[in-house]
């Protein structure tokens, strides 16, 4: 009986699964709803199972093979023992490792080579590998971390809009558009911000990049400040020996022309995505094993 | 029957009351628990009544005179109509005006003169009066406002500690002391910050001023950034005509040597406190009225 390998990329907005043969050749991929093991482990388990079933179905493999399959999962919150324990004991696979979403992204982008990935999305985290040592920088979340992230850029835009409303900073086309969206009443911004989660702030980040392209000086200033914080983190990775950098996440491509020239010269194109990284890790860990009957 | 005037300074940590004769001479002051009309209006009403009763008792006036007294209350949240309506209808006075805590502070500090107060505490707000027009700047709260406030300075300290932990910024004696307090585990900082209210962040602000005095370069940088945001707000007030500035709030005295020289030359000592300002407003509004029987 063939033992299939499974890669899972579980995120707060969706969960992706890939099924592969023992050599790592991916047979099919599929997607399901969110898989946040910290905030909602049961839904995460449901969606991990759904995505896996869909991938097996797409590959034309009987779902009964899931029970003998071996998986590597990349998820946020893999460092929280309690959540990992809960999920790991309830997975439908014969064997599974739960790793960070960052590690599978690193593996997907760089394969077995040394280097670093900067995951620049709603949050920010940097993962580097140097002589088999994997190091994490940042990733502390919106409240006191994630500098340069979409959430922080969106937050900065709302704060800047209030400063412009008060006449403390100059109003620009960008801040005027935000103020108009909140019916020109700053209290609506305050109320929105009071309840906003990082993703809600992050939805304002693309607007800053758009207005920057149209020459908005305030947008350029906010992005310059964000890029400085990304460059400072990258400096730290370079000081530790990083010579290759992949920019990942929704803001990765946008940042590629905003980071410092000293870092632009180190940029490389990712070899594959996080899901292919999860599969690659499954191959190296479980590819040599026989079926457990 | 004498009609007494009452001033109330209601805040999130305590409520103060003063009772005065019709000419505004303060007969006694007293204090009770918090009076936040937004978060807990019934407790606020209880504490407003308690502080008032205590002031009347201290002045040797029968508490029955409270029902014929006229009051001015300065509170946070006076711009939220629903909360004001609820509280105003339940006050034990013959007549009362509910104003902002900022307005009574302005009145107390400057009397009837033009000028501005910068209230620099857990939050920040600026109130100016110019030719009888009162203007508010800032005061939007911790999430997207209150730059330069104790809460924002404390927040910046925690964020800076994580940057130092990651090696992105240099560790200083100050950030090392914070990290040690959180058992050298950055996750404890993240967890604290996740649940912290502005006051909890603000309790870290005095530490920044202390370390600045001891020559800590990181402390000096954080305070410089905070002072720039205060100076930018003061620039706005000066552009509107302000020629006198009082720095109030817990951080007011600490900021007096950190703001720009152009603003230091405009600083004046406050004539009185917010409670005396509330009484002064009560005199000007109600001092000429006869008793309502």
TrEMBL record, chains A, B:
<dbReference type="Pfam" id="PF01869">
    <property type="entry name" value="BcrAD_BadFG"/>
</dbReference>
<feature type="domain" description="ATPase BadF/BadG/BcrA/BcrD type">
    <location>
        <begin position="6"/>
        <end position="251"/>
    </location>
</feature>
<protein>
    <submittedName>
        <fullName>N-acetylglucosamine kinase</fullName>
    </submittedName>
</protein>
<keyword id="KW-0418">Kinase</keyword>
<dbReference type="InterPro" id="IPR002731">
    <property type="entry name" value="ATPase_BadF"/>
</dbReference>
<dbReference type="InterPro" id="IPR043129">
    <property type="entry name" value="ATPase_NBD"/>
</dbReference>
<keyword id="KW-0808">Transferase</keyword>
<dbReference type="InterPro" id="IPR052519">
    <property type="entry name" value="Euk-type_GlcNAc_Kinase"/>
</dbReference>
<dbReference type="GO" id="GO:0016301">
    <property type="term" value="F:kinase activity"/>
</dbReference>
